[in-house]
Design brief:
This protein is an alpha/beta fold. It is built from 14 helices and 10 strands.
Length: 456
């Protein structure tokens, strides 16, 4: 049960799609001309409603197995492309799913897993697909979360290829100590149930007090309450921090993917339970993870990531950790003003990078990588035009992105009371603010397409 580096955003569930699947021969390394190796990169295509000269939408995959769901005729991007007479493609990210440049996930084999290589994949794909199909319309690059970040970066770096970009809940700023994420968790919980953050704080305070107590019965009480496996040792600070992070990330995921009515259930379980806040919290965790025992053991967790070197469907943990440890950070620390206390510092996650990939993956390497990413792309203040960004106000990821318009040609839409990437999928009953946000996105992209056509 690997949970130390949770993404809390792993792309769509397996969605039925009407898109057809293909393979594209992609360069392994875009930056060494003498290296002519290629690999098969999966992509999906729909051209059911394409009109000659129409726009071409490219949805970038992220740290998940691509399914074609983001461009299906039931998705927002797919429907928008259909209405605008566009072709639509979804490109799987290198090293995820079946798009494997090397064939294994050993540390040395991950050399070609980087933001720059992924952006070059998108640009090379767009150029070759345009030539093969005779496309003359504008390319609109899209993505969500990490791939939403890539969409914005691609518009900056390859503006001669991508006419416009649409980033749904995409990050912009690389950051090591992302304490704001769980501050937003507390804020989101409090908006739905004002009592919830206080109960969480009381539960965490009692948990920390018992774990750090000199009385072994206190430690055993926590282990029994959470039904921890025998190898878990809460006297070991790493195992204790594992448990703290697990609790925080459960509530973080509830808030991140919030939709009206979705948060109150977890809070009610916590508040209305028959025991103390700690006992009730333990029941919430046990209901969420109905396993024989909860394996809260740092060393086993690190061994899992360290040994996940074989390519297998859905095996995307190790690759994403590699990226966070090298270029992005985004560690959900418990070091800010959240209901979970100040109990899990950035050093904990940085140490786990070294435990998985080796001692060279240290704080100096990560800080240099984060600085390089922000230097190249501008963090929250990028020099970008014809790019539209959306965020849900419950989504903690919005704190590593601009929350107001970057410039008149790079608007930001904050969608009230929804979570991560809510604009990309349709719910049984979409709230008015979500419908309006989609309408604004499509109107803006239509304007940019018309501008392209007027100049053509």
């Amino acid at each position: 049960m690997p949970m130390i580096h949770p993404r809390l955003s792993l792309g769509p569930a397996k969605i039925e799609t009407d898109a057809s699947e293909f393979q594209f021969q992609q360069l392994v390394d875009h930056f060494r001309p003498l290296d002519t190796r290629t690999f098969s990169q999966r992509y999906f295509k729909r051209m059911d409603n394409y009109v000659s000269g129409g726009p071409v939408f490219l949805f970038l995959g992220g740290e998940w197995d691509a399914t074609g769901g983001f461009i299906s005729n039931t998705s927002f991007v797919g429907q928008m492309a259909d209405r605008l007479g566009g072709a639509v493609f979804e490109l799987e990210h290198r090293y995820y799913g079946i798009s494997q440049p090397i064939g294994d996930l050993e540390t040395e084999s991950l050399e070609y897993l980087s933001i720059d290589q992924a952006l070059a994949d998108a640009a090379n794909f767009a150029q070759q697909i345009s030539q093969e199909n005779g496309f003359t319309g504008p390319w609109i690059i899209c993505g969500t979360s990490y791939s939403g970040m890539l969409a914005g970066f691609a518009r900056q770096k390859y503006s001669h290829i991508f006419h416009a970009a649409y980033s749904s809940s995409g990050q912009q700023e690389a950051k090591v100590d992302f304490f704001e994420y769980h501050e937003m968790t507390g804020i989101g919980l409090g908006k739905i149930d004002p009592l919830c953050p206080g109960y969480l704080s009381a539960a965490m305070d009692e948990m920390v007090a018992r774990i750090t107590s000199d009385n072994p019965d206190d430690v055993q009480f926590v282990a029994d309450s959470f039904n921890l496996c025998q190898e878990s040792d809460l006297r070991n600070p790493n195992d204790a921090m594992y448990l703290y992070a697990l609790v925080a990330n459960l509530f973080g995921s509830v808030v991140q993917f919030a939709f009206p009515g979705s948060i109150s259930t977890e809070c009610q379980l916590l508040i209305d339970g028959p025991g103390t806040p700690l006992v009730n919290l333990a029941e919430v965790i046990k209901q969420t993870y109905p396993v024989a025992c909860l394996p809260v053991h740092y060393d086993d967790n690190m061994e899992f990531y360290r040994n996940s070197t074989e390519v297998a469907p859905g095996n995307n943990y190790r690759q994403y950790i590699y990226q966070t440890c090298l270029e992005m950070g985004w560690f959900f620390t418990l070091s800010g003003n959240s209901p979970f206390g100040n109990v899990v510092p950035a050093e904990y996650f940085i140490r786990s990078c070294a435990d998985v990939f080796g001692e060279s993956f240290n704080q100096e390497l990560l800080e240099a990588g984060v600085a390089r990413t922000n230097l190249e792309f501008g963090g929250k203040a990028p020099e970008v035009t014809r790019a539209i960004f959306t965020h849900g106000t419950f989504d903690g990821w919005s704190k590593v992105a601009a929350e107001t318009d970057i410039n008149p040609e790079a608007p930001v839409i904050m969608i009230q009371d929804v979570g991560h990437a809510a604009d990309l999928i349709f719910f049984d009953s979409d709230p008015p603010q979500l419908i309006e946000a989609r309408q604004r996105v499509e109107a803006q992209i239509t304007t940019w397409i018309n501008q392209f056509n007027q100049k053509a």
